[in-house]
């Protein structure tokens, strides 16, 4: 399952959620870093921008998510 970590008022976080909502075959969850007080922890771990897209490992941000979904569509 993909996990999208984001913050309020982040346009790329909203775009990532919208992209995943439009691809209902991909299981995912959204975690607002501010709701869980995790913004500082993620910064400490070296993540400097949002969204942070993870599966079992770090995937990237919105651009990498778009590439991943495009690849999944191409492979079928």
CA-based gyration radius: 12 Å
How do the strands of the widest beta sheet line up side by side? 2-1-3-4
Name the overall outline.
Answer: globular
| CATH top level label | Alpha Beta
Mean pLDDT comes to 92
Q: Tags for this entry?
A:
3 helices, Glutaredoxin, alpha+beta, four-stranded mixed β-sheet, 21% strand, 4 strands, 76 residues
What does the model show?
- The protein is an alpha+beta fold.
- It has a single domain, classed as Glutaredoxin, CATH 3.40.30.
- 41% of the residues lie in helices and 21% in strands.
- The protein has helices at 11-21, 39-44, 62-75, and strands at 2-6, 28-32, 52-54, 58-60.
- A four-stranded mixed sheet has the order 2-1-3-4.
- Strand 3 (52-54) and strand 4 form a beta hairpin.
- The longest helix has 14 residues, at 62-75.
């Amino acid at each position: 399952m993909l996990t999208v970590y984001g913050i309020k008022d982040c346009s790329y976080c909203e775009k990532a959620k919208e992209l995943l909502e439009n691809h209902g075959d991909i299981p995912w969850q959204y975690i607002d870093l501010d709701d869980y007080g995790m913004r500082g922890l993620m910064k400490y771990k070296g993540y400097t921008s949002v969204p942070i897209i993870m599966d079992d490992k770090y995937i990237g941000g919105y651009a990498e998510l778009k590439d991943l979904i495009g690849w999944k569509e191409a492979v079928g």
